[in-house]
Amino acid sequence: MLIPLADGEPGNRVLTLSLFSAVVAVTLYITWWASRQNKSAADYYAGGRNFSGAQNGLAVAGDYMSAASFLGISGQIALYGYDGFLYSIGFLVAWLVALLLVAELLRNSGRFTMADQLAFRMKQKPVRTAAATSTIVVSIFYLLAQMVGAGSLVGLLLGVKGEGVKAAVIILVGALMIVYVTIGGMKGTTWVQIVKAVLLMTGTVLITFLVLLKFNFNISDLLGAASEKSGKGQSFLQPGLLYGKDLIGQIDFLSLGLALVLGTAGLPHILIRFYTVPDSRSARRSVQWAIGLIGAFYLMTLALGFGAAALLNTAKGSAVEASKGNVASPELAEAVGGGAGSLGGSILLALIAAVAFATILAVVAGLTLTSASSFAHDLYANVIAKTKPSEKSELRVARFAAIGIGAVAIALAIPAQKLNIAFLVALAFAVAASANLPSLLFNLFWRRFNTSGAVWSIYGGLVSAVVLVIFSPVVSGKPTSMITGADFAWFPLSNPGIVSIPLGFLFGVLGTYLGKDRSSEERYNELSVRALTGAGAEGATKH
Amino acid sequence: MDEDVVRERDARAYEAVHDAADFKELKRRYKNFVVPWTITFMVWYLAYVACNNWARGFMNTEVIGNINVALVFGLLQFVSTFVIAALYGRFANRKLDPLAAGLNAKFKRERRR
């Protein structure tokens, strides 16, 4: 398969490469600048808690709008029409769970990691070990999705292909993310997210405007042209092209919907963002900003996706189809800029490619920081070390952990090239919803909840989600499975959420009653006062 | 100061705030807002997911031009998310923050005692 992107046009490639280099240079400068202000643990883990609601809102949106959603969702719409749009609705509504039930209470009751909030009233070692395990597992799944995407994407955007190039790109992206995280900490990573979010929104607004201009801002005409060009007629605008073909498919779709809407508020790399603001009020502001930005962004992907369907060749064998939709947005940028070979087309293509690259870099940095923080703060400082280590040595461990996690991610991503990106992302959401959300909510709202309840709920949710996927058609039993030629799929759904999320809650209840321990109730009053009023919550650092 | 002494002093201050009438009121207001709205948006979202699965005839109904019920229903999920986020923000600013600020001050006073 030949991807006709920037092929035979060395001028294009030079332009794209120089924009890529500019992205790297700017982000490295930010990292270096931030590193000079990192003094304490609160600086490294939480950016000094000095970001404003609007700044953190941009950073949250930056963390959330991964390359998978930027290129993936618009690509899915380009290929499957209306059904491609469904992911983004779950992704957006999910923020209400974060806004109403989690963000502010977590900001008030925790310090650096997701586990802090549980450790507030439970036995440190078991809950920190469990929470760190699920933090690292969720982050690695998500990280793998981004890096696998980066490998094929950057090659595609630069117009080069081959396994060697993919591996080289993965190593380069991995090395950069290690530098951002070890040197810049949370402050550097947050600024990288902010820059990326601004770039992404600007690029998307520009292309959306140009697409709509072509249709005189008549949405109905755009939809009509898309359905006609797709060759699928009205069904392109109706539910059913991708999901819910039979009863199993329909239950599978419901299961996916549940994981999407409940997963966000359990994603560790999103949760620790709420520690970067000075108080719960700014945590609330940041979620509101994020909802506005993410919502606007997903609305624009609708124009991008249907625009690509209307203006590009998406038939079988086309570049868009061959890339599973991933090149729809960059190709669309080229088309609305004036077409292949034109100056406008080349510039827009290079611009969107650079935005996608910045997106990948920013998201992987956020995930690596999350895992490294949890390793150093939860596992090393509170479980592994015999005596409480100094802040300095804890931070040293965090930096080494970032290098270690980066290396593991590189090592896993290179052989994982064949894995489906959307599947990895959906799995991360399912694990987050099954393992993390139940214990977060129980801890805040159920006095009786105790250490064994938390441990059961986290491990129970984590194991059920992962085991169900292993025995699902995603892994075996179908021509599209990861392992072909074997069939051990006794679980019929590709998305485990509908079973594993209730199991996560159920394990929490069972563990609580079977554990019998009631000592966790002693500090429940304290936790609820602190969570609701912010009394005694960690403040911003002063320089 | 000794760490245990600090802990004990803080614990007493937290209990004092917890027993305050204002805190019970804060908790009540928070729950009375959050519980019904969470149920509302979850039911509304799951209704949308279910209609995609099991009410395709309804979803395929034309509204205007090429715009059908499915698309409008999807866009309404955006609208409802924006509206609920704004309503919660307004409610929290007006009804929760002032109480929380008062209790926070009480906590600081209690801790100095």
UniProtKB/TrEMBL annotation, chain A:
It holds the Pfam family SSF. InterPro entries: Na/Glc_symporter_sf, Na/solute_symporter, Sodium:Solute_Symporter. The chain crosses the membrane at residues 14-35, 56-79, 85-106, 127-145, 165-183, 195-213, 253-275, 287-312, 347-376, 397-415, 421-446, 453-475, 495-514. Its main location: membrane. GO terms for cellular component: plasma membrane. It is found in: Cell membrane. It comes from the Bacteria. One of its GO terms (molecular function) is acetate transmembrane transporter activity. It is a multi-pass membrane protein. One of its GO terms (biological process) is plasma membrane acetate transport. Keywords: Cell membrane, Membrane, Symport, Transmembrane, Transmembrane helix, Transport. Belongs to the sodium:solute symporter (SSF) (TC 2.A.21) family. This is Cation acetate symporter.
UniProtKB/TrEMBL annotation, chain B:
Keywords: Membrane, Transmembrane, Transmembrane helix. The chain crosses the membrane at residues 33-55, 67-88. The keyword Lipid biosynthesis does not apply. Pfam families: DUF485. This is DUF485 domain-containing protein. It comes from Kribbella sandramycini.
